[in-house]
Amino acid sequence: MVEKVNLKDKILISYGTGGKYTQEFINNYVLKHFKSKILSELLDSAVLNFEMDSKIAFTTDSYTVSPIFFPGGDIGKLSICGTINDLLCVGAIPKYISVSLIIEEGLEFEVIDKILSSIEEVANEENVEIVTGDTKVVEKGSCDKVFITTAGIGVVNKNICLHYNRISPGDVVIISGNIAEHGLAVLLSRGGFGFDCKIQSDCSSLKPMLEQLFNKEISSHIKFMRDPTRGGISAVLNEVVHKRKDVSIEIEEELVPLSGSVKNLCELLSFDPLNIANEGKVVIIVDKNFAEETVKVLRQHPLGKNARIIGEVTTENKGRVILKTTYGTKRIVDMPIAEELPRIC
Amino acid sequence: MLYDIIQSFRDTNIVKKELEVITYVAKDIKRDVFIMEVCGTHTMQISKFGLRKLLPKNIKLISGPGCPVCVTPIEYVDKAIYIVRNYNVILATFGDLFRVPGSESSLEKEKSDGKDVRIVYSPEEIIALSKESQDKDIVFLSIGFETTMPGIAAVAKEIKDNGINNVYFLLGNKFFLPALEVLILHSRSYILSNINTTSSIDGFILPGHLSSIIGEKSYLWISKKYNLPGVITGFEPLDILRGIRMILEMIIVNKPEIKNEYTRVVTYEGNIDAKKFILEVFTFKSSKWRGIGVVPDSGVEFKEGYKQYDAEVKFDIPKINNISEFTGCRCNDVLIGKITPFECALFATVCTPENPKGACMVSQEGACAAYYKYERDDV
Question: B195-201: long-range contacts (C-beta < 8 A, 24 or more apart)?
Answer without folding.
Answer: B195/B32, B195/B60, B197/B31, B197/B32, B199/B31, B199/B32, B199/B33, B199/B34, B200/B34, B201/B34, B201/B35, B201/B36, B201/B62, B201/B228, B201/B337
